[in-house]
Predict the structure.
Amino acid sequence: MTEAIITHSAQQNYPARGRRGRKQLEIIHGEHCSHPRRLPARLIPNQPGAAIYTVDVTAMARLFGYVDVTDSGFIVAVLSIAFNPLFWNVVARWEHKTRALSRVFGSPRAACYCLGAVILMLNCVRSHCFTEAMKSQPKLEGLDCHWAYYLGLAVLAVGTLFVISSFLALGFTGTFLGDYFGILMEAKVTSFPFSILDNPMYWGSTAVYLGWSLMHASPAGLLLTAVVAISYTIAMLYEGPFTEEIYRQKQKGVKNK
């Protein structure tokens, strides 16, 4: 039975008007559970002294029924989403601690450009896995319409605007963790889109995946977008304090001179 029922009265003599009323009472008392969707989430009216609330969880169950989380393509997409921020954070922190990449490539800037190219390649792989996972799973009928498609297109366009404008404001090295290579910016970027949103690159990328999912009416895509948002949120929790510490050390060094 997919309905949770909370009773606030010991009274059991509820009025039952006709077949529908009897059928609802049968469901309430657990005597008939073959049609759990008959009783929506509401307060049963016309019942003095009794308040029965039902919580219908079939909508959520139906949504997840469209997504096969055991599908190999879906699992690969989840792994690629989780791997990317983990990879660039581990490599960038290792570089900050050892300067190994800078020595291998001859300069911090060359090493940063190389890491940026790898990150771009991994993002392309992630996007491909994301799209293939959507294609391999069914669409949601309620989203398979014109209004949802154009809404998704608008969300994708806004996300793309945030991503591109962030890149232009930060530059290549600012976008691809140049701080960890010792390539520090002179001042904090406050121009658009940083003037209206923190971490616009990450949220813009998330919006791109959300829009892409809506355009494809894909429940699997929506779930994967949530994974993207969670992965970026965790990355921000690690990157933010570490980057601030890098610039604190820079300011401390300047003052000591």
